[in-house]
Amino acid sequence: MRGREVAARLAFGVVTTLLATFFALPCLWLVLAPFNARATLATVLPSPPSLTNFRAVLGNHDAVVGLLNSGIQALGSMLLTVAVAALAAYALSRARVPGARAFTAVLLMFSSVVSGTVAMVPIYNIILKLGLIDTQLGVILVMTGGLLPTAIFLLLDFVNALPKSYEESAAVCGARPWQYLPQVIFPLIRPGLMVVGVWAFVGVWGSFLTPYILLRSNSNLPASVQAYQFYNDNGQPVLTLVSAYSFLYVLPVLLLYLWVNWRYGFRFFGGIKG
Amino acid sequence: MSVPLPRARRAAAARPPALLSARAGVGFLLPALAFIALFLLVPFAWIVAVSFTNQSLLGANAQGQFVGLSNYARMFDAATWLPGGFGYSLIVTAIFSLGSLAGQVTLGLTLALLFHGQRGPWREVVFTLVTLCWILPEVPVAFGWLSFLDRDFGLLNVLLRALHLGSPDWTLDHPLAAIILFNIWRGTAFSMLLFSAALASIPPSYLEVAAVSGAGPWRRFWDITLPSIRPQLLSALVLISLWTFNTFGPYLITAGGPLNKTDIVAIHTYRVAFRFGDWGLGTAIAMFTMLLNLLLTAVYLLAARRREPRAGA
Questions:
Q1: B226 SS3 class
Q2: Alpha-carbon distance A272 to B4, whole Å?
Q3: What angle do CA B88, B171, B130 make, to 5 degrees?
Q4: Which of B101, B130, B123, B85 is nearest to B256 (CA)?
Q5: Which of these, B84, B124, B53, lies nearest to B284 by C-alpha position?
Q6: Number of domains chain B contains
Q7: What is the CATH number of the domain that holds B152?
Q8: Using the beta-carbon criterion (under 8 Å), do B155 and A224 form an inter-chain contact?
Q9: Cβ separation of A257 and B135 shorter than 8 Å?
Q10: CA of B206, closest CA in chain A: separation in Å?
Q11: What cellular component GO annotations does this protein have (chain A) (predicted)?
């Protein structure tokens, strides 16, 4: 029995280490190359470690603007998505809308079907007709449209979980219906707003296809598309710059993840239902 | 990321008079409805309409004329099963999706089972690592993979050479295998998180009773664990298939090449519509893809409904 237990522990250690290695290896270059002044595609320890690449990237005007644009687009879409979704979720929960839940479920299904490349053709056309091609607003609107169904679905649960007595007592104290939301509901569903906000931010920050299709000029491109500007005359990526830029671009998502994981625990709240 | 919960049902059971008047409700819903109409319904209608025209991005056909079903016929013309054709890209997508699905579900389930009932730093490290592979932006991750797969310097070939297993040029010789591996790596976190949540909800007493009555690990897995997580297994299968079917990510690794060997449907659609500017054909392809996705969703809903009485019990 004892021997078998040791063998099981050992097997567990070996298998989990192998799996962890598989997931770690492709990330290794992203961590090491930025600090290597002569970075190639090889994954090697930088000797000596240097910050030259970061200095070069931060001295590049388009690169810095790219990171700022990513921030503008992610923040803009996040705020718009959370605001619009919260209003909708509140209405679906509190006004008597028959089949509110079925409605959001259908919307969710529909949005997952009408998504990705399939939708980019007409969406390009809509944004063109609105005169918003090559504007950050265009990207923000499109991203918000894509995020909304899921955001409403997620927030609906948080609002539904609140007893109506909160608003009823607010009403007794003389609050008007339009005051419920900012003064009563928002503070109570803050965890939900945070979850949806972070989820939206990360999604937009990392998006490539939508800005790639809707934007043209360098001054509007986010970091995901801007990363492809670091090519030399032979069409080869300048790896020293690409790696350092990737590192800076990944950092906010990494920090957000660690913060969410520490604050709320990153997991499925209750599991998937059809 | 995190996914919905069934808390609402109970609240809906005994519903007192509505707090919000119908008019206020509609007012609050208006912005959301505008977005949904503009970015879901209009694109949908537009795809349906344009797929019957010869509209193009630029040039003489920028307005487009009604051409009936000819786009759908062009989709499946004589060359469709040759590289670059739509049929060919469907086959590539099928292999890509099935490979990704098998890999993601197997790896995710393995990780969830291995760490089931465990706490501690090693679990935290592994779960964080796998989750990061999922949530980090796709562009830097793609650069990491280009380095990983590089023929001469890539870490994968360095390791393979050390083990005397040869060093193929992954993106040229085995491009489809390369993007499948990439997609498995990228998506395993979802099934891992889903399955560990499912495993955590199995009452430990089930497995204890089975162990006491002499069932070995395999029997316990087949007779108790697997049936208990069947709903989640089903959800994972369908959601992963939908995501994999529509993902554009592999474009960043192989751009659909070489010789269209990785021309999955999302990349094919992009190429036809935006590179060739052929919106008639592009939307017809989009329509067909959408119908396939709807079919998948319908199968999912049917299967989910069949399990509903059990889930409620």
A1: helix
A2: 6
A3: 100
A4: B85
A5: B53
A6: 2
A7: 1.10.3720.10
A8: no
A9: yes
A10: 20
A11: plasma membrane
**For the CA atoms of chain A, what is the radius of gyration?**
23
The reply to whether ipTM tops 0.90 is no
Contact B198 A271 (CB under 8 A): yes
Domain ranges of chain A: 2-50, 60-263
Domain with B61, as residue range(s), is 30-75
CATH superfamily of A60-263: MetI-like (1.10.3720.10)
Q: Are residues B155 and B97 in the same domain?
A: yes
Q: Does B252 lie at the interface with A, CB-CB under 8 angstroms?
A: yes
Q: pLDDT (tens digit, 9 = 90+) per residue, A135-179?
A: 999 999 999 999 998 899 888 888 888 888 888 888 888 887 778
Length of chain A: 274
In the three-class reduction of DSSP (H, G, I as helix; E, B as strand; rest coil), residue A152 is classed as helix
**B206: pLDDT confidence band, cut at 50, 70 and 90?**
confident
Has residue B223 been placed in a domain?
yes
Residue whose pair of structure tokens reads 């948080």 in the numeric block:
A158
Residue owning tokens 């609105």: A130
Scan for tokens 């087949």, then name that residue: B222
pLDDT tens per residue across span A96-110: 777 777 888 788 777
When the pLDDT of each residue in chain B is averaged and rounded to a whole number, the result is 85
